[in-house]
Structure formats: C-alpha cells, structure tokens
Amino acid sequence: NLEPKKIGPENEFSEVMMIMATPGEDDNEVAPVLFKLSKKVPNGTKVR
Question: Which superkingdom is the protein from (predicted)?
C-alpha cells in the first residue's frame, strides 16, 4: 500500500492508486486501459 502523497498544483492529498494496462509492445501504440476489479477484495490483496 502507498502512503498518502501531496500532488497537483494545489498540493492535495492523494490516497488512491490506479493500475493501467498498456496493450501492445509500444506504449504509444494504444491508449492505456484502466484495470477494474469485478468484485470487492480486502485491502492489501496482491495483484499478480
């Protein structure tokens, strides 16, 4: 888990993490796809 971090021009705290997949071999080939779970899992669950 990540510690909250101040981000952005107004130094607001971020307490979330987004996981994106980039299909294809070249990162510029296609837009990233948001990784979305189909059901809730406990905090700290490993993503493999």
Answer: Bacteria
pLDDT at 39 exceeding the cut of 90: yes
Q: How far apart are CA 46 and CA 31, in angstroms?
A: 25
DSSP character string of 1-48:
-PPPEEETTTTEEE-----EE--SSSTTSS--EE---SS---TTPPP-
**pLDDT tens, position by position, 19-34:** 888 877 766 677 888 8
Q: Where are the domains of the chain?
A: 1-48
DSSP code at position 24: S
